Amino acid sequence: MCALFAVASLAHAQTTPKPSPPAPLSAASIALPKAFLRTPYHAELGVQGGVAPFRWMLESGSLPPGMDLAPNGVVSGTPRLVGDFPFTATVSDSSTPPHQINQSLVLRVVAPLMAKWLRPPTVNGLRVEGSVEVSNQTGDDFDLTEVVVAVNDIGRATVLGYQHFTLEKNTLNYEIPFSETPGPGTYQINVDVIAEIPDLDVIHHARLVGSHPLQVLGP
Q: Are 123 and 211 part of one and the same domain?
């Protein structure tokens, strides 16, 4: 019996497959989701193959102010500047010796709410006219309010335009015109745009100020 057991054990040892070597280390993250100005952000860089655990570091380039890359591959923080931020991240695995690869990425930071003059305010006879262009660059609908006021030299404000409507998600370059007769005087034109996302308890605000005072003459 002992001889048969030894032969059986030897046969079993000879047929046990060897463990497969790990797949080569490669990057899994193709692109980062865009970030929004002054809004908390969280994204994870990924890898395929290699031997865990993995360690990440910023090799070159930079992330937006207010953000960083953690050793576990998490990009997080609250960006304080808009723009495109290219960077290269290096990841190492736990092989002996460690395998290492670089991954080039770009993090885009945009303002959730954008507002700009499409037609800057001008005087047309007795009327002050112009238009504002607004954009919702998020994946949520905005409950949007836009108010245009003309403030004269003694601080009296006249409303030139008021709009309240739903600006749907990912809506870009939506024009809001305004036109009103504020009466004779010299006016500074200001615009306030407020976008609310009630379900998230989030409010975004943008303000425009005319580049110079406008003078409206009497009839």
A: yes
Answer whether 75's CB lies under 8 Å from 67's CB. Answer: yes
Domain count, the chain: 2
Q: What is the CATH number of the domain that holds 192?
A: 2.60.40.10
Domain annotation covers residue 62: yes
Tokens of 149: 């006021």
- Using alpha carbons, select from 95, 117, 127 the residue that is nearest to residue 214: 127
Residues 210, 117: Cα–Cα separation, whole Å: 9
Q: What gap in Å lies between CA 207 and CA 191, rounded to an integer?
A: 6
3-state DSSP percent of the chain in helix, strand and coil, to 5? 10, 55, 35
Q: Please report, as a single letter, which amino acid is at residue 150.
A: A
Q: What is the pLDDT of residues 113-137, one digit of tens each?
A: 999 999 999 999 999 999 999 999 9
Domain that holds residue 34: 21-110
Separation between Cα atoms, residue 51 and residue 199, nearest integer Å: 42
Q: What is the pLDDT of residues 201-215, one digit of tens each?
A: 999 999 999 999 999
Residue 145 C-alpha from the chain's centroid: 22
